[in-house]
């Protein structure tokens, strides 16, 4: 009797995890498409750097203060689209710059980000490794990157800029493994929050890759 | 120093302040990884580095 109950609970848990992963990837693909549209609008409008920064800050404020309160209800869906739309729009000035220098950098960064995300998610999903031990390392690493970024706003050292972007690639790749594993092992049970986390990792990975490819390109 | 830099610095500082408590909690509460666990991170990261080197050589 107890064995049957355990088996039913186990199969329910597997079904729940599969549903969470499916919903997360569906919402993630929709939000990525939507942010692509808003980024395109931003490029077409010729949004200034200040407009891009204001849009990014508005998106992050929604993410910090509104999403946690709405993620457990249907109102979380428009909020996540609002966040990803604003963050996509914030990418406009950077995209315009690299498109004017060499459009292939943007395409390569886009393809590279997609390949890294699919590869790392596939790795975490198939091996089913638990990456919860990386939580401290990743968050402290991210804090160090923020500190270095603040320092480099004042100092403007190109080598530090490259080091920061290389570190962002490593940390965001780690976050993709960590977040995917959290969905499998029950660390994350809300698909809207899971989508927001993965979206941010992908966005930061794309930006860092864009800067690295831009720095090393011949143009 | 222009407004863009000032706003960027303030934004990054706010981000650090908001992330800090979560980071401290994560360091205290996250399970410690074994050597094998860390290899599970290092191997895919090595693949990511090689892939990025390939991308850089393409642009």
Detail the topology: elements first, then pairings.
The complex is a heterodimer of chains A (219) and B (59).
Chain A: H1 2-45, H2 49-70, H3 76-90, H4 92-101, H5 103-127, H6 135-155, H7 158-185, H8 191-216
Helix pairs in contact in A: 1-3, 1-4, 1-7, 1-8, 2-3, 3-8, 4-5, 5-7, 5-8, 6-7, 7-8
Chain B: H1 3-29, H2 35-58
Using brief descriptors, characterize the structure shown.
heterodimer, A: about 220 residues, mainly alpha, 8 helices, about 85% helix, globular, B: about 60 residues, 2 helices
Structural commentary:
The complex is a heterodimer of chains A (219) and B (59). Chain A has helices at 2-45, 49-70, 76-90, 92-101, 103-127, 135-155, 158-185, 191-216. By secondary structure, chain A is mainly alpha-helical. Chain A is globular, with a radius of gyration of 19 Å. Chain B is mainly α. Chain B has helices at 3-29, 35-58. Chain B is flat. The relative contact order of chain B is 0.06. The model of chain B has no long low-confidence stretch (mean pLDDT 91). Chain A binds chain B through residues 49-50, 53, 56-57, 60, 64, 102, 104-105, 108-109, 112, 115-116, 119-120, 123, 127, 129-136, 138-140, 142-143, 146-147, 149-150, 153, 169-170, 173-174, 177, 209, 212-213, 216-218, and chain B through 3-5, 7-9, 11-13, 15-16, 18-20, 22-23, 26-33, 37, 40-41, 44-45, 47-48, 51-52, 55-56, 58-59.
Briefly characterize the structure.
The complex is a heterodimer of chains A (219) and B (59). Chain A has 219 residues and is an all-alpha fold.
């Amino acid at each position: 009797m107890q064995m049957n109950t355990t088996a039913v609970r186990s199969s329910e848990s597997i079904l729940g995890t599969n549903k969470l992963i499916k919903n997360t990837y569906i919402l993630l693909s929709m939000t990525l498409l939507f942010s692509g549209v808003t980024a395109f609008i931003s490029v077409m409008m010729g949004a200034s750097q200040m407009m891009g920064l204001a849009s990014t800050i508005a998106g992050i404020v929604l993410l910090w203060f509104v999403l946690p309160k709405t993620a457990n209800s249907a109102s979380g869906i428009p909020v996540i689209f609002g966040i990803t739309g604003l963050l996509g729009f914030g990418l406009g000035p950077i995209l315009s710059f690299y498109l004017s220098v060499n459009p292939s950098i943007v395409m390569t960064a886009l393809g590279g980000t997609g390949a890294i995300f699919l590869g790392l998610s596939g790795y975490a999903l198939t091996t089913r490794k638990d990456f919860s031990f990386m939580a401290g390392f990743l968050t402290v690493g991210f804090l160090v990157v923020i500190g270095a970024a603040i320092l480099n706003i004042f100092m403007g050292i190109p080598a530090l800029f490259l080091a920061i972007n290389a570190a962002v690639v490593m940390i965001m790749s780690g976050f993709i493994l960590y977040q995917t594993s959290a969905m499998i092992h029950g660390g994350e049970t809300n698909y809207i929050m899971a989508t927001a986390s993965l979206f941010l990792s992908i966005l930061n990975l794309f930006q860092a890759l864009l800067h690295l490819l831009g720095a090393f390109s011949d143009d | 120093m222009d407004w863009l830099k000032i706003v960027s610095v303030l934004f990054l500082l706010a981000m650090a302040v908001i992330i800090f408590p979560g980071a401290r909690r994560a360091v205290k509460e996250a399970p410690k990884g074994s050597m094998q666990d860390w290899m599970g991170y290092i191997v895919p990261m090595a693949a990511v580095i090689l892939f990025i080197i390939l991308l850089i050589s393409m642009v």
